[in-house]
Design brief:
Layout (H helix, E strand, L loop, with lengths): L2 H66 L7 H9 L4 H82 L1
Length: about 170
């Protein structure tokens, strides 16, 4: 009878089913990759924020030292001032002015970076939640149908072997 063609078509069915599940898994992998990229971007944003904060803190300290004339940290500038005499009050005023402008700018930047970071996290979270809900539904369905498929594959497999055996025994 049609032993061999039956055998071939049930193999095709099995392969087709397997491919469908492979595609679903691929989607998960893409998602995991996307998630990693999001985390990396967040880390970079955090790092950027910390650098900006550090820069701001050091400018504030410089400004304070200039204003009060006390140097809390060892610096090359402090040394050269000691060696080559003080700068004029005008020069110092000018430097303080420049620093104050930079500090204002830095504070604005820090604020906007902070805001950006919070916005980014909020949006990323929303995306993740959406995906999780969708995927939990999909995954449950996929797992159930995968189990069903495995069972039917076993049955098909047994069928395939019995068909094949008949096939070969007829040769």
């Amino acid at each position: 009878g049609g032993g061999y063609s039956e055998y071939a078509s049930s193999i095709d069915d099995i392969l087709e089913d397997e491919e469908h599940y492979a595609d679903q898994l691929k989607e998960y992998l893409f998602y995991a990759e996307a998630l990693r990229a999001v985390c990396r971007k967040h880390e970079l944003m955090q790092y950027d924020l910390e650098m900006a904060a550090q820069d701001l803190a050091s400018k504030k300290q410089q400004c304070e030292e200039l204003a009060t004339g006390t140097v809390r940290t060892f610096s090359l500038k402090g040394m050269t001032t000691k060696l080559f005499g003080q700068e004029t009050p005008e020069q110092r005023e000018a430097r303080i002015k420049v620093l104050e402008e930079q500090i204002n700018e830095g504070e604005q930047q820090l604020k906007s970076k902070n805001l950006e970071g919070r916005e980014f996290v909020k949006n990323a979270w929303a995306d993740i939640e959406r995906f999780k809900e969708q995927k939990n539904r999909d995954l449950k369905e996929a797992l159930i149908s995968y189990a069903v498929m495995q069972i039917s594959m076993c049955k098909k497999g047994i069928q395939v072997w019995t068909n094949a055996k008949e096939c070969f025994s007829k040769m």
